[in-house]
Amino acid sequence: MSYKVAAVAAIVGAVAIAGAYTLGQQQRTASAPAVAGAPAGGQGTVHQGKVGVDPSEKFTHFRVGNRNVKKIYAENGVVWVATSGGVIRYDTRSDEYKLYDNTTGLLSNGMFYVGRIQGKITVGTYGGGMSMLDEKTNTWETFNIPDGLGDAFVYDVLETRNGDVWIATWSGVNRVRGGKLKDPSAWELHTVENTNGGLPNDWVYGLAEGKNGEIWLATEGGMTRFADGKWENWNHSRGVGADYEKVKKDIEYKSDPAKESLHHAQQKREMGLEGIDQAYNPNYIISLVVDDDGSLWCGTWGGGLAHFDGKQWTNYTTVEGLPGNHIFMLHRDNKNRLWIGTNDGLALKEGNSFRVMKAEDGLFNNTVFSMTTTPDGDMWIGSYGGVAHLRPVN
Predict the structure, then answer these.
(1) Helix locations, the chain, DSSP H
(2) What does the angle CA 97 – CA 101 – CA 106 come to, to the nearest 5 degrees?
(3) The pLDDT value given to residue 249
(4) Which of 251, 246, 250 lies closest to 236, judged by CA?
(5) Contact present, 290 and 208 (Cβ < 8 Å)
(6) 130 near 122, Cβ under 8 Å?
(7) Which H helix or E strand runs over 168?
(8) Is 120 exposed, middle or buried (0-12, 13-18, 19+ CB in 10 A)?
């Protein structure tokens, strides 16, 4: 893993609090490892780390304050960073940056998704629906529940090869036939109820299109496939996620969401997991990616990484070399390598083993929520508190 990384650029401080940023770019040296979750408002520091090459090389950190970086999208020298305090447009060529939040036309500051849909920068928000940016006028158009959206909480958006737009919400999944967003008759909402359980849970977190046009959906009740008008789903009882006995010693999060949420408590009861009081639910699928051969990878909540070859599931955990068993992010880069973002570091799958990168190697924080790579091989990795930008050695 050979990466050369540059001098620091820090997005400092009052990111969503004051609605403005200070972008400082400095040349410094330091010997301390990366500081995870550094407090908002402080000037950026150049940290040194192995980055797989030379301990003297530096890497770039972008601070976003006490915020999670949930999604990153890069194109043509511009990086869009979706955080829990707004979405940032950062032009790497000029160092120009802009924050979009509820003071600039969005209905919510919490961001789950950013990408291009129908040629427009699109964000999925936490309670503010789905918004699309007109970059010429710098204005947002929002689609919400009155337009047919299942819920104002939008976690993922997918534009398929046939032009349909799928929208993952916390009250089912929308399919907009032909991408006709302004045609109410084109909107469909699929839920547990109207699919007769084909969609196993209404909380939908991720979407991906398979090689034959099938749609894969990551939900809180397992993995789902929609193909030729039919639904099929898989949960732990059908092979998704490692058994509790295999992972219980390595579950880092000891607090159980089921103790705080009636929804999660009910889900555990439905899945027969009510006797487990740790943060473990292999039916809760957080991330997914579909390979060119049609096989599927998905990340579970405490049950590790699961791979489906179309017939059977294979599960990978810390026992097999992953740094953590909560899999928040999956990404295929332009060299077709699989990257796995976990609660305790980033892993690169190499055959049946994993190469691990942590804060001392260049990450901003060991909790990795998001990642993208550019055509020239730059890696942008989002964590709690900031983004690490790693550049490959030529």
Answers:
(1) 244-247, 262-270
(2) 125
(3) 87
(4) 246
(5) yes
(6) yes
(7) strand 165-169
(8) middle
Task: Give the pLDDT score at 122.
Answer: 98
Q: Do the Cβ atoms of 127 and 153 come closer than 8 Å?
A: yes
Residue range 108-116: average pLDDT?
97
Percent of the chain with pLDDT over 70: 77
Q: Tell me the HSE value of 169 on the side-chain side, using a 13 A CA sphere.
A: 26
Q: Specify the pairing of strand 230-234 against strand 204-209.
A: unpaired
Does residue 263 sit in helix, strand or coil? helix
Q: Are 384 and 369 in contact (CB under 8 A)?
A: yes
Q: Is 7 exposed, middle or buried (0-12, 13-18, 19+ CB in 10 A)?
A: middle
Q: Which of 183, 80, 58 is nearest to 124 (CA)?
A: 80
Q: Check if the beta carbon of residue 112 is closer than 8 Å to that of residue 169.
A: no
pLDDT over 80 at 263, yes or no: no
CA 212 to CA 208: how far, in whole Å?
12
The single residue listed with the structure tokens 């097999």 is 320
b (16+ CB within 10 A) / e for 74-102: beeebbbbbbbbbbbbbebeeeebebbbe
* Beta carbons of 108 and 127 less than 8 angstroms apart: yes
What tokens appear for 343 in the block? 């609660």
Residue 207 pLDDT > 90: yes
Helix/strand/coil for 324: coil
CA 255, chain centre distance (Å): 22
The mean pLDDT of the chain is 82
For the residues 331-348, what does the mean pLDDT come to? 95
DSSP string, 178-228: GG-TT-GGGEEEE-TTTTTTSS--S-EEEEEE-TTS-EEEEETTEEEEEET
Looking up tokens 């070399």 gives 321
